[in-house]
Amino acid sequence: MIRWILVIFLALMFISWFSPMLQRLGFGKLPGDLRFRLFGREWFIPLTTTIILSMLAALVSKIL
Predict the structure, then answer these.
(1) Residue 64 to residues 50, 51, 57, 58: CA-CA distances in angstroms?
(2) pLDDT digits over 12-54, tens only?
């Protein structure tokens, strides 16, 4: 259980770091990706993007 929480946390961090590059590819603006302003700062929670990229990573790992 803790391993999955850590994996999800790292995936969200990875996606948020590379979100400008991913936005040019169309990720980050999918339905289910949350953007909101709170305390004068913009927050981004890429739920749908995380699921799609996880499925893509699983597919690549199955093939290789």
Answers:
(1) 21, 20, 11, 10
(2) 787 778 778 877 887 777 888 888 899 999 888 888 888 888 8
Q: How many domains does the chain have?
A: 1
Residue type, 4: W
E-state strands within 1-59: 33-38, 41-46
**Sequence letter at residue 25:** L
Q: Look up the pTM and report it.
A: 0.59
Nearest CA to 45 out of 5, 9, 6, 7 is that of: 9
Domain limits for position 11: 2-63
